[in-house]
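Researcher: We're reviewing a set of sequences before deciding which ones to prioritize for further study. For each one, I'd like a predicted 3D structure that I can look through quickly. This is ABC transporter ATP-binding protein. If possible, include the structure in C-alpha cell form so it fits the rest of the review sheet.
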Amino acid sequence: MAEQTTPILTTEDLTKRFGGLAAVDGVSIQLNEGEIVALIGPNGAGKTTFYNMVSGRMTPTSGRVLLRGTDIAGKPPHEIARAGIGRSFQITNVFNELTVRENVQVALVSHRGKSLRLFSILGRDKALHREADEILARLGLESMAGLRTGTLSYGDKRLLELAIVLAIEPEIVMLDEPTAGLTPDETTAVIELIRTLRAERSYTFFITEHDMEVVFGLAERVLVMHRGQLLATGAPEEVQKNPEVRRAYLGDEEDSAA
Ligand SMILES: Nc1ncnc2c1ncn2[C@@H]1O[C@H](COP(=O)(O)OP(=O)(O)OP(=O)(O)O)[C@@H](O)[C@H]1O
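Model: Here's the predicted structure for ABC transporter ATP-binding protein, in C-alpha cell form for your review sheet.
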C-alpha cells in the first residue's frame, strides 16, 4: 500500500470538561490525506464528544483542531462543513416528503448559500438536477432519484445521508456508525462503497463504528479511546493484539456484568 502521510487534520490536546468530568482529556491525533480511520472505544470513552468537537457541534474546553493547519476549534458546524468536513448522522436527517433528488439538491443549494427561492430553484435548475443525479449515481441510487424519500428502505436512507454529505464537497467525510441497523448484505455494500469512493475521489474517512468486523474490514488505522484519553493507535491487527486495548474492553464488560 502507498504511504499516506500528509496530515489533513490534527487535534492538539483536545479537551472537553463537563463539570468535574473530562469527557475528552488531552487527545492529540492526526488524520492523513486519503486514509480510512476508525475511532473506537468502550461505552462512555468520549468518542461522541471528540467527534462533536471536530465537526463543530461542541466547543472544546481547550486544545486545537487544525484543518490543513488552520484552527477550526469552536467554529459553528456550517463553517466547518464549508471548510471541508462533512458529517453524517445515525439519526436520519432527510426530508421524507421530498424526492431523493430534491434532498440532494437542497444540500447542494444550502451549501452554496443560496437558500433564497430554494424551491423554485429546485424545479428549474437543470445543472443542479444533473449534479444531484451524478452524486446519486456514485451511490447507486440513480434509479430512486424521483421517488419520495419516505418510501425508501432504512438502508437506502442511510445511503441518501451519505449523498447529502458528499453534496457539500467535503475533503473529510465523518460517518457516525455507517453500518448501524443495516442488513449483512447492506453492510458489505457500504464497506465496498466507502472503499470505491475513497479510490475515486481520495476522500479521507473518519468513522465511528461499534461493529468490530466492520472496523477491522474497513479501517486502515484505528484510534482507540478509553476514559477520555487516546489509549492506542495503529493498524487494525496491531490494535487488536494490544493488551491495554483488550483490558479496556474486557474491563468494561466486567464492570457492566457486575
Ligand atoms: N452533555 C454532557 N454533559 C455531561 N456529561 C456528558 C455530556 N456528554 C457526554 N457526557 C459524558 O462524557 C463521557 C463521554 O461520553 P461520550 O458520549 O462522548 O462517549 P462515547 O464514547 O461516545 O460513548 P458511547 O459509545 O456509549 O456512545 C460519558 O461519561 C458521558 O456521560
